[in-house]
Design brief:
The chain is mostly helical and about 325 residues long. It is built from 16 helices and four strands. The longest helix is centred in the first third of the chain and has 23 residues.
């Protein structure tokens, strides 16, 4: 029978050198204890880099003008959330695609969000003992779409001169219908903290679904400005950064790298493109042992001799 030839890319040569005892349980225990001690010491010395959570109450008190402006964008449907598309709504043309593949449309609207109703109308309706507001809400509900648009355009036109006087939203808007009262009362509701509660408990008293307040906050300029100061935006490699001067997750650099270069950083389907790219790279890494030529790179570079340098140093002495 003909002897099978040795294939360096596939076959492992028989080891003909010496052997040394190795207690993996002992070594593993030592490593675990050392890492545990270092983790505890660093936790005590450096503490947690997390900052206090940003709430709708925090935002509306820090920048009530921005809150009122964002509330208007939710009401007239011009906010990012209102036009986001799946999984929140069916906005035409908002779906991310990969060639002919319309990924978001496959998922569909799983978390239905109507920005005007969920962020403005419904929370206002939850306020008790508000006869003036209740009447204004009835006026809004009874109006036609054309009339509502006229009110919203009038308010939006005057919103550039919006002011906060003694905690009240003051705006000189004519023919704006119930919009001034609605925006002002929503702002007061937010500043008291009641809006946070109304948005979170929309599906029951005990809940951990913070989708609505997070989307509302994400539509604001306030949150974007905070992210900019903390170097957390996409242009600042924000996916791998942390708040303050702490280093971020360096292992995410390959993923967030793609968002910094064309066509990913300018495409409306950037997330889908990055996901596909990382999928291909992950498969490539997975199949490295099966790709001729590529699997030979470590052997030809002789990196193994550097890793096992002590072993090869002993072999060369013999």
């Amino acid at each position: 029978m003909r002897k099978k030839s040795f294939r360096p890319d596939v076959d492992a040569p028989a080891w003909k050198g010496g052997y040394s005892p190795y207690d993996i349980i002992k070594e593993g225990t030592i490593a675990l204890v050392v890492i545990l001690v270092l983790t505890l010491i660093m936790a005590v010395v450096f503490g947690s880099p997390d900052e206090k959570a940003i709430t709708v109450k925090t935002w509306s008190n820090a920048d009530p003008i921005d809150f009122a402006t964002t509330a208007l964008s939710e009401l007239n449907g011009t906010s990012v959330s209102a036009a986001y598309g799946a999984p929140y709504n069916n906005t035409p043309g908002a779906s991310q695609t990969m060639g002919p593949l319309k990924l978001e449309q496959w998922v569909g609207v799983r978390i239905p969000i109507n920005s005007a109703k969920d962020f403005v109308i419904s929370p206002l309706k939850s306020l008790p003992d508000q006869p003036v507001l209740d009447q204004q809400l009835k006026t809004w509900s009874a109006a036609s779409t054309a009339t509502k648009n006229t009110w919203l355009k009038s308010y939006a036109k005057a919103s550039t001169n919006m002011k906060i006087v003694k905690g009240q939203v003051v705006i000189n808007a004519t023919n704006a219908g119930p919009v001034p009262v609605m925006i002002n009362d929503l702002t007061q509701m937010a500043r008291s903290g009641a809006l946070d509660q109304a948005l979170v408990t929309g599906h029951g008293f005990y809940t951990t679904d913070y989708t609505k307040p997070l989307l509302f906050l994400a539509d604001s300029q306030y949150l974007g400005d905070l992210a900019q100061k903390q170097h957390l935006t996409g242009e600042q490699w924000g996916m791998m950064n942390e708040t303050g001067s702490y280093p971020g997750q360096a292992w995410l650099w390959l993923y967030t790298f793609w968002y910094q270069i064309p066509p990913f950083n300018s495409s409306s389907s950037g997330d889908a493109l990055v996901f596909a790219t990382m999928g291909v790279l992950s498969l490539l890494l997975l199949f490295v042992p099966f790709i001729p030529g590529l699997r030979s790179v470590p052997r030809k570079l002789k990196i193994y001799r550097l890793i096992w340098r002590e072993h090869y140093r002993e072999i060369e002495k013999v």
